[in-house]
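Problem 12. The chain below contains 326 residues. Write out its predicted structure in token notation.
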Amino acid sequence: MVVLASTPAVDHIPLLRSPDPGDYFSGMPVVDLSSPGAPRAIADACERFGFFKLVNHGVPADTMDRLESEAVRFFSLPQADKDRSGPAYPFGYGSKRIGLNGDMGWLEYLLLAVESASLSGACTVPSCALFRAALNEYIAAVRKVAVRVMEAMAEGLGIAPVDALSAMVTAGGSDQVFRVNHYPPCHALQGLGCSATGFGEHTDPQLISVLRSNGTSGLQIALQNGQWVSVPSDRDAFFVNVGDSLQVLTNGRFKSVKHRVVANSLKSRVSMIYFGGPAMTQRIAPLPQLLGAGEQSLYKDFTWGEYKKAAYNSRLGDNRLAQFHR
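Solution.
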């Protein structure tokens, strides 16, 4: 982390060394979802990195572009208009402040509740009919991708039934969230060799996250040796993260990936993320099919509701699973 005298534009936001070309993740796994080998490739990527790039996913480019355009239009509104859609507690518009525990980032965002395959009727933000229509079309499509990926995960792990994992996000009462992030260019730091933290390092507490962004880079993941690498942007692909709950369900076989976003000094970054979580009462414990003879669970049992409460009471960078390790 870079330590500099405070710059008013980024006051209270941690600064990081700006990425350079040597930081890019040359070994990133790329999975073709249409390939017969996808299940094994997904399982391998989740074991090695907890992260992979997904291509040939079947979501039309128009569906992705329409949502991006509506998001850009929303974030271009006067600040007073955007503020009327907040605060993001629990859902709505937020700016710079991430959660309630002091985390800050160079971003603004919409945090939205999903019910089944569309925005929850109780989620009144955004109010624009065109934006909501674009969101619902995209959410329905990306949720299907998440389900296909989780079915492939089950196949790659050799467990049955095929929906052993995906049923947790398709069942009634599943806890699904959708997030739209906008990272404005941070011109104040241009040429200084450092960048503002867009979203601080963390793991996702849910089962799975499916992300798509525009052509601006900024996403970084931590390899298992602790090295941070930058993920080359690809607006036609999705990027899939293993979450904490999936790590527990696989008894540590799949790795929940630590990641962060570095703000760009010249270009805006827009990202859209679907978070698939189970129902609040869902028990989170290693699947019996994945425990070998005599193998014990690495974790204490808990429900998703219990873990979500613990996660949301923590700071972004905390090891949220630590208190649940045996």
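Discussion. The radius of gyration is 19 Å. Students who got a different answer should revisit the alignment rule from Section 12.3.
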